[in-house]
Amino acid sequence: MATMIRLCLCFSIIVLHLVSRMAQSENYIIHMDSSSMPKLFSTKHNWYLSTLSSALENTHVTTNDNILNTASSKLIYTYTNVMNGFSANLSPNELEALKNSPGYISSTLDLQAKLHTTHSPQFLGLNPKIGAWPASKFGEDVIVGLVDSGLWLESESFKDEGMTEIPSRWKGQCESSIKCNNKLIGARLFNKGFTFAKYPNLVTFENSTRDTEGHGTHTSSIAVGSQVENASFFGFANGTAQGIASRARIAMYKAVWDGKAHSTDVLAAIDSAISDGVDVLSLSFGFGNISMYSDPIAIATFAAMEKGIFVSTSAGNSGPDRGTLNSAIPWVINVGASTLDREFRGTLALGNGVNIPGLSLYLGNFSAHQVPIVFMDSCDTLEKLANASGKIVVCSEDKNNVPLSFQVYNVHWSNAAAGVFISSTIDTSFFLRNGSAGIIINPGNGQIVKAYIKSNPNAKACMSFKTTTLATKPAPSVDVYSSRGPSSSCPFVLKPDITAPGTSILAAWPPNLPVAQFGSQNLSSNFNFLTGTSMACPHVAGVGALLRGAHPDWSPAAIRSAIMTTSDIFDNTKELIKDIADDYKPASPLALGSGHANPNKALDPGLVYDVGVQDYVNLLCAMSSTQQNISIITRSSTNNCSNPSLDLNYPSFIGFFSSNGSSNESRVAWEFQRTVTNVGEKQTIYSANVTPIKGFNVSVVPSKLVFKEKNEKLSYKLRIEGPMVEGFGYLTWTDMKHAQVQVWEAKEMCIVVSLIILDRTGPSLDGVGPLLPAVPILCFVSSKQCFRYLHSHPHFHNAEMALLNFLNVNVSLIEDPLRFQPLIIRKRSMVFDFKMCGLDLVDTMYGREVSTGETFFHDIFNRFMGQRGVQFWGTAGKKNTRECIRKKWMCI
């Protein structure tokens, strides 16, 4: 179990007593029709409480007073802004009784969200003398709300030196004895849903807005952190730490507890943020690729959008497979993750005078004296490393396909002096920070090292570390873990919208939470590196704050449009931005979005694609078959669906086709209509330019837009005709000053669902339990085919084929272009509740002790995680595990 470090801080401790009633109950979000509220009720809260009491009266034999008390104890939240309804902890019988209540619309089970910098502002082009920073006064007086794990107020990133008084329009406050300042102006906590939920292993937690996870402190300082000189991570990335909007205010809404965010708490947090008066919301988590009508983020942010709040969400860390994106919500901006032009390096100095560069975040020093260096093939067992005591061992993943994670683990627990890992792994960021000396080098340099060892029986070498290198190329690139579109929840809007720095981002960190382990010592720091779209999201929230400060009259859609249409599609080599997971080929908009955020250009976009509330309703009307679904989001029972349309006025385009039964010569056409608003010069002319795409004919009518006034609106049509093949391109509107880029993509229509198949056979690589390969199944609904992705694993068993046959699909076997590689997660992971299927789940912290009492180095998360599947390492405790997983997670 993880050790809790206690400080002398004033916050209360809640002890969770789990009673049998809770074991039989679940948290539910109840949607109500407000037009059905009787006039005798003065508030919706009283109506909800009365409705709940009536439902309980039909299921309990007790007095009226006891029923009212029971109803009050079962009511979790009443929601005011984000939806019409409430949340409650109910048994199955109580829920059924509630469904018969007047005004009841629907219920949703409480969901659990997954949590998805000294240099990044400069990398984005921000400059204190020109551009977005001075134009917006660094986001002064813009209020950015974050729903996250709390905040460490004492961090220098949240000092309020030189800041003005809190804006009078602010209605928020600081709870739980947290003393705020002119920087942190609001701090609230939301944990009722969490405390009602069933967590038998949880005993206590701090009932405070103070950050006990680190995630919220990190994301907050990325978005709006104050300037901090000489920030670094033990000498790495030394420089000035500063948030994107460093003069903006922070309001923290703590709804993440023990790494979990419950939908009941998230709804309440956003509900409060709207009432308090935030201008921007940053949400670095997601509930998976679920329908918008059951997604609490989609429901809550619609209300936020109506209030003029700009919302930034993270795409998720389940890449690189397509269809893994979270929060594909049309009224928010969805952010993918990219790399910086910065690397952390070590050097291997060979005895022949040749220096080999490599990647490393090793915090220690290495002896200046050279020691023997030996090649140990794949370093796949500790037995092989037994004779390498005091030596530098060189490991290659070429032989036996042993993952880099195994090699790092084995070298760390051996008596070797250091490790040199020859790796072609495309995502190494999770392996750089290690408790033992080591560097990762590319295969080309690996050949040089191996040739030296082979030619010299007394080969020696030494190492040096702690080098930060800037201006590395190419950068940015879309990183492997960043989730890709399209999303089955709303495939008609191209997502993600944008990318921003997310890999190895240095930002503020609570000093009471260890950031690394060196030997037996836990190390602490005021700054820490984290990687993920959780880090990319607050970058764009900060950009949104800058634009809100410079253009307070812009709508959330106008801010999103400005960020998207002015984004960069070229890297620092003047080439198209690459996708690391696709062998550094030009990144598709399904990975990159419109491009990489450029705050300075977004300040003056020239044209914006604005979207009103009714436009979103028209999209919902075209997508949904029921008014009930629409009303869950809009909170209205009288939605105008007279003009349904899937063609939203969005600054990107996506077209679908189905090649099922079509010939190779078949062609397809799409037509889109867009309206742009001139926010630039009063009189200007824009001309359309389309990048040539082989085989496609593209036309824009009219090809010129002549604006006579500022804020004038003009429309155009884009027609694309071509073969049934996937492709993408760019439409650019230019005048003498601006160059606006909109992306489009053609995709075969598909809905992607992941399915787990477990197998207990396979080698025991860690000496503890068998290897369990979990195989994602991608079901392409339009073509009725499923592709089983192989990852260099030889086993394909009858039970798995029988399961595919059960699904009544044709099976084609193709090789996964990316060889399977488990990830190492550097923080304690969330645990998925598969114990019902007899699985011992893994909860790792630096690959040591786990919640089941066993030791595993591998984490349950990896890049193949999908909406309906989790890949993990563990042992199966029941023979019917496969059957259980099939029933609960089958592709339906």
TrEMBL record:
Pfam families: fn3_6, Inhibitor_I9, Peptidase_S8. GO terms for biological process: proteolysis; response to symbiotic bacterium; response to symbiotic fungus. GO terms for molecular function: serine-type endopeptidase activity. Keywords: Glycoprotein, Hydrolase, Protease, Secreted, Serine protease, Signal. The active site is at residues 148, 215, 534. GO terms for cellular component: extracellular region. Residues 1-25 form the signal peptide. Residues 647-738 form the Subtilisin-like protease fibronectin type-III domain. Residues 27-116 form the Inhibitor I9 domain. Belongs to the peptidase S8 family. This is Subtilisin-like protease SBT1.9. Residues 139-571 form the Peptidase S8/S53 domain. The keyword NADP does not apply. The lineage of its organism: Eukaryota, Viridiplantae, Streptophyta, Embryophyta, Tracheophyta. Its main location: secreted. It is found in: Secreted. It comes from Glycine soja (Wild soybean).
